[in-house]
Specification:
This protein has 237 residues and is an alpha/beta fold. The protein has a single domain, classed as Alpha-Beta Barrel (TIM Barrel), CATH 3.20.20. 43% of the residues lie in helices and 16% in strands. Helix 3 packs parallel to helix 4 and helix 8 packs across helix 10. The chain binds cytidine-5'-monophosphate. Cytidine-5'-monophosphate binds next to strand 8.
Amino acid sequence: MSEPRIIVALDFPAATPALEIVARLDPARCRLKVGKELFTGAGPVLVEQLVARGYGVFLDLKFHDIPNTVAGACAAAAELGCWMVNVHASGGRAMLEAARERLDRRSSRPLLIAVTVLTSLDDTALAEIGFAADSGSLVDRLSALALDCGLDGVVSSPLEIARLRRRFGRRPCLVIPGIRPADATHDDQKRVATPSAAIAAGADYLVIGRPITQAPEPLAALAAIEASFATGAPARG
Ligand code: C5P
């Protein structure tokens, strides 16, 4: 079976509802994302449980602190057995290089991915916190910085995939949230693409939460999305 391209976002407040969904998924078919809510509620023990069940775990804690602290946090994520971890590119070169260098000391290490500009920030919000550039220029600038520091890739909106591929080529690993099957509700997502469109544009991994976790049959929803990659047809969620 080919490598799973779907990362299921476990956006739950505690271990019990998360594990109920995980019991209905398959580690050969998807990876799992643990973010700030679930990690704060359930802790590193849950991450270890998911790894022990054979899942690749993306620890989505978006580290942003002084270099030594972020490097230590990335090493702790690697100790837990995480497959992917992320940091804010706006933490700067010293922080990004410290994180990458600390992980490079290990015989096997998680993929290290940069967050550039939060999609919740528009140009007005960026100006208010002191960024002069528009969000597109900032995404380009922060992506270039992260890749120059040796990070493995970036998290990006589906609408930026083609531009990032044109600018940076095949090398960066592109991790893409904001994915909705054609007939699924958008929930609170605004800038969305279908799974097949995101893969065709050059996404490596798709982060998908509610279209799978809220489906009556999560594994069937996942299978329908996977099937849409091959056919190019919009997935039926
Ligand atoms: O349920 P849904 O598919 O919208 O979940 C998407 C996941 O991706 C959530 O965990 C969300 O926090 C995350 N995410 C996002 N947009 C970003 C970055 C992360 O939706 N720009």
